[in-house]
Specification:
Blueprint: H1 27-41, E1 57-58, H2 59-69, H3 74-85, E2 97-98, H4 112-115, H5 117-120, H6 141-151, H7 153-159, H8 161-179, E3 189-190, H9 193-196, H10 205-208, H11 235-250, E4 262-263, H12 265-284, H13 290-307, E5 308-309, E6 314-315, E7 318-319, E8 335-336, H14 355-366, E9 399-400, H15 401-413, H16 417-433, E10 439-440, E11 447-448, H17 454-465, H18 472-475
Antiparallel strand pairs: 1-2, 3-4, 4-7, 5-6, 7-8, 9-10, 10-11
Helix pairs in contact: 1-17, 2-3, 2-6, 2-17, 3-6, 6-7, 6-8, 6-12, 8-12, 12-13, 15-16, 16-17
């Protein structure tokens, strides 16, 4: 039952929205307000990220929202994930949007009549009874399923929650590991910037520059009805997004033929984390998790081999389609994209990440490019010193709460408890002061985008319920006691 300028010095020119020395709302009051956001965004079967800007169900949003919902209602959290998984395609992909048929077509673009999932996606096994998009989002779902199960194992077992979710999650991972290994190195590629979740990141600028944009007259941007143009992607970038999506649709959502294919560190780190969680789910169902833990370790090694740059102390994206890269005759080698994004810090979440790499990532996060604990209160989405940095423009600088939550978990995963505790406090204070904003200025905490945002409220709840230094919850998803694995 439910219970309800481009240098770090520019930070000094901003007025600070939050003030750590001023008492904030009590944890109880913050809990109640976060719960109210989730209640307001609940549709009866799932939670919208935002009633105005995002009126449908989004894939990775629902996973993060379920992680928070488990503290209010494990049943509702299970329903959230079950609704999403019921829209899975026959080839295993979990679509990035599940459309609500009661929402007018012009409320969001691209709308169902753009994606044409039931017809264009027929060969890939798109469902006939529900309309979806044809692309995907980061695979955080198995981790969410495991954490939701842990919130009320008795309820989960009585409803067969894991038994129903496991084969769908296994099919999802098979799709990514086989259909999306476009670089041939074992990692999954994204075929559209929207798939990685950080839609407008400067990491996409070079790969997108080869894409001819769709004509501006061929689409109408509903996002500009709800947000300032200066905070959103440019019309040029949006035209390229539309072109990629159109070509993918017209190719019947077959993978491998598109102009855009990028191996992203956070997308693959979340796949690895979910492989570890899927191993725990298998064990709960009476099988062994050994093979999945081993696969997660192999993927971690591939992540390091293909995306780690020791000289820069960062994981970078790899542009598999880069025509200027030389790979010694090997197809799909591509080239690293030298743009520092928060995506390159997310692998801290992984338990078998080599210790020296984890330590270097912590130094990078706290250094001048991200300023964590120093110039920046929260983790910026992009390099504070980068030429493309903008503290307000979508994924080109602002801080987001889901990536902050992932980095906080990663810091704790690798024993950085003081830094994790400071970030946890900053996340809670900023969520409180910003009215659960979609994202914020990383220097000032000024709210940007939608207010009352779903995953901001949900992850606030999770941080409130998680004791600052209690590692038992999320780390249990990575328990490798069945195989004796250790971090190298």
């Amino acid at each position: 039952m439910d219970r309800t300028a481009q240098l770090t010095s520019r930070a000094t020119t901003h007025s600070v929205v939050y003030e750590p020395d001023v008492p904030t709302h009590s944890p109880h009051a913050l809990h109640v307000r976060a719960a109210e956001v989730l209640k307001a965004n609940w549709t009866g079967t799932s939670t919208v990220p935002s009633r105005g800007l995002y009126p449908h169900q989004w894939s990775w949003d629902s996973a993060f929202i379920a992680i928070g919902l488990r503290h209010l209602s494990p049943l509702r959290a299970q329903t959230e994930l079950e609704t999403l998984l019921s829209a899975q395609w026959g080839d295993g992909r979990i679509p990035h949007i599940v459309f609500n048929p009661s929402v007018p077509l012009d409320a969001y673009f691209p709308s169902p009549d753009f994606w044409r999932s039931s017809t264009a996606g027929r060969a890939a096994g798109a469902p006939r009874t529900v309309q979806t998009s044809g692309i995907v989002q980061p695979p955080v779902h198995a981790l969410a399923v495991w954490l939701v199960h842990q919130a009320d194992p008795g309820l989960s077992r009585s409803r067969g929650f894991l038994a129903h979710a496991y084969p769908r999650l296994a099919a999802w991972h098979r799709y990514l590991l086989h259909r999306r290994d476009l670089g041939g190195g074992g990692l999954a590629s994204v075929v559209h910037p929207w798939e990685q979740g950080m839609d407008n990141s400067p990491c996409w600028d070079a790969p997108l520059s080869r894409v001819t944009p769709a004509p501006a007259r061929s689409f109408r941007r509903a996002d500009l009805d709800h947000g300032a143009a200066e905070d959103r992607p440019t019309d040029l970038d949006y035209g390229r997004y539309v072109r990629l999506a159109t070509d993918y649709r017209d190719g019947e959502y077959a993978d491998g033929a598109g102009e855009f294919a990028v191996e992203d560190p956070s997308f693959n780190a979340l796949l690895i984390a979910s492989e570890h969680a899927l191993a725990r789910i298998a064990q709960e169902l009476g099988a062994t998790g050994t093979a999945r833990h081993a696969r997660a370790e192999r993927l971690t090694a591939a992540l390091v081999e293909r995306l780690w740059d020791p000289a820069e102390g960062m994981f970078f994206c790899r542009d598999v389609r880069d025509p200027g890269a030389t790979g010694g005759g090997k197809p799909g080698v591509g080239a690293l994209v030298p743009e520092r994004s928060v995506s390159g810090l997310v692998p801290l979440l992984l338990p078998t990440l080599p210790r020296d790499i984890a330590a270097t990532l912590v130094r990078t996060a706290r250094g001048p490019h991200f300023g964590l604990g120093g110039a920046a209160r929260l983790v910026p989405s992009y390099d504070l010193l980068g030429e493309a940095f903008d503290p307000h423009r979508y994924w080109r600088g602002p801080a987001w709460f889901n990536t902050g939550w992932l980095v906080e978990r990663g810091l704790r995963q690798h024993g950085e408890r003081a830094h994790a505790g400071a970030l946890r406090t900053a996340l809670l204070e900023t969520a409180d002061a910003s009215e659960f904003a979609e994202y914020v200025d990383p220097y000032t905490g000024e709210a940007c985008g939608a207010l009352g945002f779903g995953w901001t409220a949900a992850l606030t709840l999770d941080l409130l319920h998680q004791q600052p230094f209690d590692d038992s919850d999320i780390n249990s998803a990575f328990d490798m006691s069945d195989k004796g694995g250790e971090r190298r």
